[in-house]
Amino acid sequence: MKNQSRRIVYSALIAAIYAALTLVLAPISFGPIQFRISEVMVLLAYFDPFYIIGLTLGCFISNILGSGLIDAIFGTLATFISVVLVYYTSKVKIKEPVRMFLASLWPVIINGLIIGWMISHFFTEGKESMWILGGQVALGEFGVVSIIGVFVMYKMRDSIRKLIK
């Protein structure tokens, strides 16, 4: 029971940190060209599926407060799908640096598609191409998750695994 309580607290902390980072850095966290530093945290799902809840909740809180209902729905859906796929990719039997990098590509692809569509459909009235907007979102995600995130999480992997146990 003590371990379960600790995991719930960690998940709540992850949600709070994700939301706080996103909102404090709001000018670069929202829009078609975004560099959402909090997205580094989506790779925590690589280590434990329990953190999917905290990451999804943190995304919902930051999107509802920072951007509104539409982003809260579609952005949260994109994050949820991404972190679930990150977790399942962590089970693939290939060397860890490559596996972690491949897992990091899910948020790039999913956010590029869903958020690109959302921005194009709801915020530009179809004036801008979904593919261009999605490419901009994916590029920001790639920089944060696949470059910075993989580097940080790979270096911290042993500490993260100890913390989980």
Sum this structure up briefly.
By secondary structure, this protein is mainly alpha-helical. The chain has six helices and no strands.
Strand content: under 5%
Structural class: mainly alpha
Total helix count?
6
CATH class descriptor: Mainly Alpha
Shape: globular
Query: Terminal Cα separation, in Å?
Result: 13 Å
> Unreliable stretches, pLDDT < 50, 5 or more residues?
none
Helix content: over 70%
Average of the residue pLDDT scores: 93
- CATH fold name, please? Arp2/3 complex 21 kDa subunit ARPC3
Radius of gyration, rounded? 15 Å
- Sketch the major β-sheet: none
| CATH architecture designation | Orthogonal Bundle
Count of individual domains: 1
Write down how many β-strands occur, each being a DSSP E stretch of 2 or more residues: 0
**Helix-strand pattern, N to C?**
HHHHHH
